[in-house]
Amino acid sequence: MSSEDVLFTITSKNLDSGLRGVPVGTCQTSFVDPYEGVHYVGYPVEDLVNMEEEDVIFLLMNKRLPTEEEAQEFHSELTQRGENIPTGALRVLESLTPGSGHPMDWLSIGIMALGAAENTGDTKADAMNLIARMPELMARIFRLRAGEKDKLKPRRPGLGLVENFVHMMGFEGQEARDIERVLRFFFILHMDHGGGNLSTFSGKAVASGWASIYSSISSAMNALSGPLHGRANQACLEFVQRIGTSDHKEIETFVRAELENRRPIFGFGHGVLRAEDPRARLLIELGEEICPDDDNFKIVRALREVVPPILSEIPKISNPYPNVDIASGSLLHSVGFTMPEYYTTFFGWARVAGISAQILDERNSRDGRGTPIYRPKYIPKNQPLRRLD
Length: 389
Ligand code: MLT
Known about the structure:
Elements: E1 30-33, E2 37-40, E3 43-44, H1 53-62, H2 68-83, H3 103-117, H4 123-145, H5 161-168, H6 173-189, H7 198-208, H8 213-224, H9 232-243, H10 248-260, H11 278-290, H12 295-312, H13 325-334, H14 343-368
Antiparallel strand pairs: 1-2, 2-3
Helix pairs in contact: 2-4, 3-4, 3-8, 4-5, 4-14, 5-6, 6-14, 7-8, 7-14, 8-14, 9-13, 10-12, 11-13, 12-13
């Protein structure tokens, strides 16, 4: 690509379109092919989904998979950074009223609290500290928001990120192993999705003004909390539960009624993808393995068959196929996370790695001068020049 190549022609129809499809930068961590879905540094996500989560984070940060020795070192570094969390850094969560707000509010506040307790000013060190301390933040959000502080277990050095969260939550034995399997899978699938999804873009925009990793990621989490973005996984399981049947005819009637009433059909469509999201397929394959007879999962399986032909009848819908949100909630539910309002926090936790890696890439660009502060142009509308008399 030369600096003279024309990549895109802007016309007035591109205005007020949420920058849809407008190229604004480069991304080194991942790309989303409209038909093949997300690839992390060139690897289709299905090649990575059964790896250790730390190895995939290493890939996003370093643009290659680690050797065995590097993997061990990276793991030890995360363990050490997790252990060195400043004492009382998350005490602010104890002052929030259990059950108040949305768990995403707690996530954003918790990330800011970690930054207030320790901001080294070294973006990479701060990113690694945040990634390492997320399991503890997540476990605290779950237990404190439920008013169950006594159930919280102290972190255990040496465990993987997902394993430590599951341990701190107090799960044990086979139950813990089942949760780890689903969470690790979910975690890897949600780490990154190109540069232009709303949370990543927002995080990078904030970071471009040289805000700290904590402020940038907390802003990204606020962007993720919207029902059109990350909170769609919560909305999707609630939608599945509202349908309440895996009978194809009844689902068709339900979906057509929703469309007639101009209500969204959750778990379908995407801004970039033009085929079924491979993350949806991978989650459904995992569901077939771990919970084929689960009531919610049976509805998801039926929706996947019934809905695309119905949505295809609507000319303005360019992607009638399932997206990542269709099955993630039913899988989390099947291993015991029965409250959909927490699902977006798992999405956010996973995305901390991808967004941090992208922020580091932008900070290191232009020979270390960094990407300039984001400043797109807006065209004035409905504001003729006027003066006070
Ligand atoms: C994501 O993973 O961020 C979503 O699929 C949304 C997007 O890519 O725009």
